[in-house]
Specification:
The protein has no helices and 11 strands. By secondary structure, the chain is an all-beta fold.
């Protein structure tokens, strides 16, 4: 079973940047979509950025549009999330999620904390 592992989280000051990576333990074939979700304490998990492979379209939640960029990588690192101009409200655990013909794959999450 393929596993996903996120990395790149950490503590950053407001206005700073981080790049999240999602590493795969194996190749995932026939990917339909890739997403980054986040979950803040006491809140529901929300999708913040998505790539739909058949159309090539990207989508973002309003709160991050213009600041975050999702991009497709390689078979071993299928998806990245570049986060710029980070705000305290971006503090959350971030998860990558890959939807493929073979199933849904989730990582364990990486903590992003935005604080001065």
């Amino acid at each position: 079973q393929v596993q996903l592992v996120e990395s790149g989280g950490g503590l950053v000051q407001p206005g700073g940047s981080l790049t999240l990576s999602c590493a795969s333990s194996g190749t995932i074939f026939e990917i339909h979509a890739m997403h980054w979700y986040r979950q803040a304490p006491g809140k529901q998990r929300e999708a913040v950025a998505s790539i739909f492979t058949s159309s090539g379209t990207h989508s973002y939640v309003d709160s991050v549009r213009g600041r975050f960029t999702i991009s497709r990588g390689t078979s071993k690192n299928p998806v990245f999330l570049q986060m710029n101009n980070l705000k305290p409200e971006d503090t959350a655990v971030y998860f990558c999620h890959v939807v493929a013909k073979s199933g849904n794959y989730w990582g364990q999450g990486t903590q992003v904390t935005v604080s001065s």
